[in-house]
Structures are given as structure tokens and as C-alpha cells.
Amino acid sequence: MPGDAHVAVLGAGAWGTALALSLAERGDAVRLWTWQKDHARELAQDRENKRFFPGFPLHERVEPNAGLAPTLAGAKLVIIVVPTPAVRGLLEQAAPYLAGDAPLAVASKGIEVDSNMLLSEVIESVLGPTARPRSIVLSGPSFAQEVARGLPTSLVAAAFQMDAAIRAQMSIATERLRIYTSDDPIGVQVGGALKNVIAIAAGAVDGLGFGHNTRAALITRGLAEIARLAVAKGGDALTLSGLAGLGDLVLTCSADLSRNRTVGLELGRGRTLEEVLVSLGHVAEGVTTAKSAYQLSQKLGVELPITNAVYRVIYENQPVDDAVRGLLMRPPRKERDTRPPRKGSES
């Protein structure tokens, strides 16, 4: 590796900034890209991301940039941390500058609307099949603030080729940021995407004043439907018992720092979606993922009752209490359906 090789972090929101800080703390030079030139100037002048992540000074090894060419030139690792709807466009712009051998890690969590592609599939559709062996998915229970504060956090790096996952593990891990590897990027991506949708539902039942019993049941049933979709996409149900499944789901459904839970909480309290998103000030991936997951479930014939209820609340203006009532009135059934159906069996 050249002596000046650096890590390129594409996306200067809260999570991208937190990862940049963690990488810089471990000794890496980091180029932090934002699509807004004025934002890049602010980052360079203030040495703090006052727009999206105030209170955490930028490390001296973090170099803000608004140009993809200088950000990507010579990068030993590229990490994509932009909202899911922006991933395809970013890849199209970045393609001429991406080195053919640099690992490409996606730390965004979602499913592309209309194409219904996982982000690894978006990468391959834009960059071609040669990008598949070097593509990595980074996911797990992780709030940006806690990573930036150096609180112990565990993530999973998943790839179709284990050597790529191991390479990412060695490039990102610190004493406080533990990275596990996985060979199931499909399951990891489905878990990371749908947990945001289930978190909206969890927030909604809290906003309606229901108790811990209700939330625990919703998380459990949510995990079951995430596993069903993962298996239908070719993933491993066991992956969902790990960091990118159960771990991320419990965190996002239960903690006050969760944006997606906050969206559901305020909807349950009677606020409109527009009001909630304006006051939030950040992207809540579960809002768009509710649509893409609904579309994908219809396409694959997979039953996702909680996800479908969130979709109806957000996109069909169904009242939250009506959606919850619809879930409670579903016909009784055996709990064995927590196990994803084998291919060819009924869901």
C-alpha cells in the first residue's frame, strides 16, 4: 500500500462522520465526502459537523471534500454512507474514480424503491459483476453518537467472498469497535433494512400508550418476518439471530436515539408524517424502506404483516390505531411460523 493511502467515506451525515472519526482515531487518513460544497467548506473551517453531528470535533486526520475524484484517488477502502435512495446516483458518479481493487463497503441500510434491490445488488447493477467479490456490507447495532464517543460497539462485515469481509474487518476494527465477519450479505442487508420499519411500528405502539409486553411481542414477530424475507432472498435465517438481526432490531426498537422509533412514536401520538420528518432533521430510512419492503414482499409472495401495516400508515394514510387493530385481529395461528418456510412450502 502507498504510504499516503487513505479511507474514503462517502457521506457526511451523522453515521459517516462517526465512522470517519473512528477510522482517524485508529491512525488512518480519512477523506470525508459531502455532495454540498458549502458543507465541505463548513467542515474544513469549523472542524466540526455542525449541520448533522454537532459536538464532535473532526480529527486532524479527517479531510473534508466535495469532489469525488480527489476523495477516491488512492483510497485503500471506500465506505458508502449515504441514504439508500442516493446510493445508485452516487455510484454512477463515482464509477470513473473507483480503483478496481479497493474494497467497497456499504454502511447504509435499506432496499431501493421500485427496483426492490438490496444495496449489494445496486452496486453490481452499476459497477458490473466484477464489483461483487470486493463488495462488503457493514451493519449491526450502532448509534453514531456512541461510536464517536468511543463506547464499545460491535458490527458485522458481510461479503460474498470471505477474504473481502476479513479485509474490511482488519481495516475498520478498533479496541472499541469490534467487527465480526459473515458470508451472508443477503441476510445482513435484509436485517439492517427491515429493522428500521419494525422500529417505526414499535415506536407507534409506544406512542399509543401500550406497554412493554406489546413491544416485546412486536419485536419478536418482527424478527420472524425479517427472517422470512431474508430466506426468500436467499439468505440464512440464522444470520438474523446475530448482530445485524436481533441485535440491531432490539436497539432500534427500544432506544430513544433511534430516529425510526421516534417517527413511529410521534405518529402514534397523533402527529402527521410531514410534521415528524421536519422536526426530526435527519433521514429515517424506515420511511422509504417501508415502501420498498412492501413491494419486495408482494413480488416474492412473502407475508410481512407488521411491515405492511407500517406501509399503509405512511403511504395510504391509514390511522395508526386502525393499523394496530388490524394486526391484533389477524386470525390465530401457531407460533411455528417464526421459522422461515423452506423453499417451496407455504409462507
Question: Which descriptors would you attach to this protein?
Answer:
347 residues, alpha/beta, Rossmann fold, N-(1-d-carboxylethyl)-l-norvaline Dehydrogenase, domain 2, 2 domains, eight-stranded mixed beta sheet, 15 helices, 10 strands, 50% helix, 14% strand, disordered C terminus
Structure description:
There is one protein chain. This protein has 347 residues and is an alpha/beta fold. It has 15 helices and ten strands. It starts with 5 loop residues before the first strand and ends in a 19-residue tail after the last helix. Strands 5-2-1-6-7-8-9-10 form an eight-stranded mixed sheet, with helices on both faces. Strands 3-4 form a two-stranded antiparallel sheet. The model is unreliable at 340-347 (pLDDT under 50). The protein has two domains: 6-183, Rossmann fold (3-Layer(aba) Sandwich), CATH 3.40.50.720; 186-338, Orthogonal Bundle (N-(1-d-carboxylethyl)-l-norvaline Dehydrogenase, domain 2).
Q: Please name the CATH architecture of the largest domain.
A: 3-Layer(aba) Sandwich
Q: What's the CATH class of the largest domain, please? A: Alpha Beta
Please state the overall shape, judged from the principal axes of the Cα atoms. globular
Rg, Cα atoms, Å:
20 Å
* Assembly status: single chain
